[in-house]
Design brief:
Blueprint lengths: L1 H9 L9 H9 L7 H12 L4 H15 L4 H8 L2 H4 L10 H4 L3 H16 L6 H16 L11 H5 L4 E2 L2 E2 L6
Antiparallel strand pairs: 1-2
Length: 171
């Protein structure tokens, strides 16, 4: 959690995207098992929509279906509304990478596990070296960014609408 609270201090223009995998699990935990398959399907309809407009329709539909019977599940969804749909402002090719924090968390889980197992690991430099080496090893299994050439548009601050680069009017 320290990483996420430090991020805006270092990169104040960073847009935050909540993880749909974790959000789905948290919402389903607040519902009975018998309802979960249908609810999960409706949740997938939200974040797998082609456009933000379609996603918002599916979002409202989910709220309409479940707000009376499962208000805690709906509250779990609605409290992060703005941070759940950030990915629509990025290239569609990158959506599969940014809708979930699992790749980041699995890397840090490896580091966390190893650092907790090696009690009294020595000096600060020894710890930093171990964490660096674990990161290098984890990097070997990372999935490459799909269509990395579009990353330059993100860095330049170009605008994407529903994952499609908005062409600026050239005068």
């Amino acid at each position: 959690m320290g990483f996420w609270s430090a991020l805006p201090e270092v990169f104040p223009k960073t847009k935050e995207q909540r993880c749909w995998v974790h959000k789905t699990a948290n919402m389903l935990d607040k519902m009975p098992k018998s309802v979960q398959p249908k609810a999960k399907s409706l949740i997938h309809d939200i974040y797998q929509a082609d456009t933000k407009e379609d996603a918002m329709k599916a979002y409202q539909h989910f709220i309409g279906v479940y707000s009376d019977k499962y208000p805690k599940a709906v509250e779990c969804l609605t409290k992060d509304k703005e941070r759940l749909f950030t990915f629509y402002d990025f290239p569609a090719a990158h959506w599969r990478h940014i809708r979930s924090t699992n790749p980041i968390e699995s890397t840090f889980a490896t580091v966390r596990l190893r650092t907790s197992r090696t009690k009294g690991m020595g000096t600060r430099n020894t710890t930093i070296t171990m964490v660096w080496k674990l990161g290098i090893e984890a990097e070997k299994t990372w999935i490459r960014l799909h269509k990395p050439q579009t990353l330059i548009h993100v860095i330049e601050g170009r605008k994407f609408i529903d994952g499609i680069l908005k062409e600026e009017n050239v005068a």
